[in-house]
Amino acid sequence: MAAAPPGTGAGPPVADRLTARAAASAPSGVRGADDRRGELAAFLRSRRAQVRPEAHGLAGGPRRQVPGLRRDEVAFLAGISTDYYIRLEQGREARPSDAVLTGLGGALLLDPLEQRHLHVLARADESVPEPRLDTARATSTRQMLDSLPFPAVLVDHRLDLAARNAAATDLLAPLLFPYDDPTAGDADFEGPEGPEGSRSPGSPESPGGPGGPEGPRSPGGPESPGGFKDYGDNYARAVFLSPSAHAFFEDWAQAAHCTAATLRTQTGGNRTSRRLAQLLTELHEHSETFTRHWEDHALHRKTTGDKRFHHPRLGTLDLTQHTMDLPHGGGHSVWLFQPRNAATAEALRSLPPSPADN
């Protein structure tokens, strides 16, 4: 392995570092024309900090002034100039070539998902329309969901629950509709307290946003602290803002991490969606946990994974979640929750209709 290039590893001037940090922390979809370059810059910085110098045969140890690789080391390993790489990290360079992106992927040890995300960020077109599912395909997908014996939902690129079968509504009702569910206020379920639905101290960070399968509700209504009856229109909103989320998930911290990472993966190339911008702004404003995960630039794309939910009426449910992308589906996918044992299967079959079904 060749020796590292000369350089002190000193970063850009303080003003440039502060500008880059501000750009990285602002919600995606809200920053205007510089959004794409800002996202690319933040992703490069996050991955550079994660690479151990020893992975490339470079000297590590306590004398290094930065976590991970230095900028000049990344540039050397990628076969580009240090000045050019600094401009990329500062969001001052547009549309790097495929050869540059491939070189950066090798230098930063990106896996296939991260490499694809890097290309998406670099090639994102400001004029790309928001993904949509045509009417015929949406209808056939809903019919397919209704025919399935176990919970299944149709999810779009921003994790909106575009459709769900009755079994999914019953399974997820405590999470999506905490103000309808009579058990949501139980002491063990960290739900709303009192007629105004005030949250317990252990619940997710804030009132939620415009939720529900019927569309946005007007703020200021009696249903919840935020004026909304439920969180049923968006999975990310439910995970981070529903008062019952902590109790519903066996490992809420892991669920939060995976949800933020999935949302970032799904929306990597979308820079013009007003609805996405509104969702991200809401989550940033009301959930410090979401902001922390979002700024990590973690990605998540797992087709199969085990889940454990704690249902207030059924107890512990063990399921395997299968994720299937719809061909030509405009960024939509189907999540199918398959019972992992006979007890969970029997519990789901015996589940009475939830209040949200009425």
Describe this structure in words.
The protein has 358 residues and is an alpha+beta fold. The chain has helices at residues 14-25, 35-50, 71-78, 82-89, 98-107, 112-123, 135-147, 166-176, 235-241, 245-248, 252-266, 274-286, 288-296, 342-350, and strands at residues 152-155, 161-164, 304-311, 315-325, 333-339. It has a 5-stranded antiparallel beta sheet with strand order 2-1-5-4-3, sandwiched between helices. α1 (14-25) crosses α2 and α11 crosses α13. The longest helix has 16 residues, at 35-50. The relative contact order is 0.13. Residues 1-33, 181-203 and 205-229 have low confidence and may be disordered.
Condensed summary:
By secondary structure, the chain is an alpha+beta fold. It is built from 14 helices and five strands.
Task: Spell out the blueprint of helices and strands.
Layout lengths: L13 H12 L9 H16 L20 H8 L3 H8 L8 H10 L4 H12 L11 H13 L4 E4 L5 E4 L1 H11 L58 H7 L3 H4 L3 H15 L7 H13 L1 H9 L7 E8 L3 E11 L7 E7 L2 H9 L8
Antiparallel strand pairs: 1-2, 1-5, 3-4, 4-5
Helix pairs in contact: 1-2, 3-4, 3-5, 5-6, 9-11, 11-13
The shape is: elongated
Distance, first to last CA? 67 Å
Number of domains: 2
Give the helix level as a range of percent. 40-55%
Strand line-up in the sheet with most strands: 2-1-5-4-3
What is the element string, with H for helices and E for strands? HHHHHHHEEHHHHHHEEEH
Number of helices: 14
Structural class: alpha+beta
Average pLDDT, rounded to a whole number, is 76
Report the CATH C-level class of the largest domain: Alpha Beta
CATH third-level topology of the largest domain = Beta-Lactamase
| Strand tally | 5
Which regions have little confidence, pLDDT < 50, spanning 5+ residues? 1-33, 181-203, 205-229
Major β-sheet, in short?
Answer: 5 strands, antiparallel
Quote the beta fraction.
5-15%
